[in-house]
Amino acid sequence: MGLFSLGRRREPRNAELSRRIAAEVRTLLELAEEDAVSISQIDCGDAACAGGAETIILVMRKGQRTKAAKIPKAMHLVEDGDIEAGLKVLR
């Protein structure tokens, strides 16, 4: 367990899902090689959050402030259409 894991272990499946979502974000936003994408999942107590969690997308473009988008679903429930809809706030 890592120093900053706060007692939780990252599931291997989430790492794979995170990479898939990040790749789709890169394609949809036409990001450059030097731009970065971070995908994470946090607990969500709102009934609107499917799977009891929401997926957070951080987009860090070189020379710009970091922008965030949220998908009110656990990572394993996110589909391509959800990613596109979630990214509308970044365009």
From TrEMBL:
This is Nitrate reductase. It comes from Terrihabitans soli.
